[in-house]
Design brief:
Helix content: 25-40%
Largest sheet: 5 strands, mixed
CATH superfamily: Metallo-dependent phosphatases
CATH architecture: 4-Layer Sandwich
Shape: globular
Number of strands: 12
Bound molecules: manganese (II) ion
Structural class: alpha/beta
Strand content: 15-25%
Strand order of the largest sheet: 3-2-1-11-12
Number of helices: 8
């Protein structure tokens, strides 16, 4: 299978539709040039102007088997809120809820069901996609119990590798050591989660190419896709700066 793997959308519906068109998809996620599939690294919601529109589109594409959608940390938080769990509603989540609530209760329930079904990783023979990072234990195995391994895989996939707190901003420091030391069998890993100015590639000692495709669309950057196995980047520029402030 050939893929087009799209970075953090964060409610930027106009840019997503433009990017899909540029990649050769119609509005239903169909592709004119044979077998290709859309993959989303997650973080569909928050910051941008149309989290509801992005969710509506991706619920439809996934239902039709036209897209693989992974859970990001922002989606996870919305999911937990909709499931009635204890969640601190900051201004980002509040903004997203203000977009979703006018759509009505049935829509909110549909979103809750959709998010509850999303996996946190996608793996093909050579390709691995997660939102944040790959826990090294998944590559090396060893002493952890299955339950403990799964928990760490999930946490790293959602939140990345976190290395303490930045004393100035108060936000967690995101590390890339996992990528530089990756020794698993996949030849390509694609992830988002940490905003970079340009699509970034790290090549691990074992030759795995690890891409970061989160080019900060909601901050006025780009929405980026990696075409696989071509390893080409396709981008559209954000129409405006939708959100200013910390990139977390
Ligand atoms: Mn994100």
């Amino acid at each position: 299978m050939n893929y087009d793997i799209i970075g953090d959308v964060h409610g930027c519906l106009d840019e997503l539709l433009e990017l899909m068109e540029k990649l050769g998809y119609d509005g239903d996620g169909g592709h004119g040039r044979g077998e290709r599939k859309l993959v989303f690294v997650g973080d569909l919601v928050d910051r941008g102007p149309s989290s509801d529109g992005v969710l509506e589109l991706l619920m439809r594409l996934r239902e039709q088997g036209r897209a693989i959608v992974l859970l990001g940390n922002h989606d996870e938080k919305l999911k937990r809120y909709l499931q009635g769990k204890q969640v601190r509603v900051g201004h980002m989540l509040a903004g997203t809820l203000a977009q979703l609530e006018p759509r009505g209760k049935a829509f909110m329930q549909q979103v809750c069901d959709f998010l509850s079904e999303l996996p946190y990783r996608y793996a093909d023979e050579d390709l691995l996609v997660v939102h944040g990072a790959v826990y090294p234990g998944s590559a090396t195995i060893g002493s952890l119990s299955f339950a403990e391994q799964s928990k760490r895989d999930r946490e790293w996939a959602l939140y990345g590798q976190v290395g303490g707190t930045d004393t100035i901003s108060g936000y967690p420091i995101r590390l890339q050591d996992w990528a530089r030391g990756y020794s698993g069998s996949h030849n390509t890993i694609v992830r988002g989660h940490s905003v970079v100015a340009e699509v970034e590639t790290i090549v691990s000692p074992s030759g795995t190419r690890i891409y970061n495709v989160d080019t900060g669309c909601s901050f006025g950057g780009y929405l980026s896709a990696l075409r696989y196995p071509e390893h080409e980047v396709v981008q559209v520029k954000a129409r405006k700066v939708y959100y200013e402030g910390s990139i977390i």
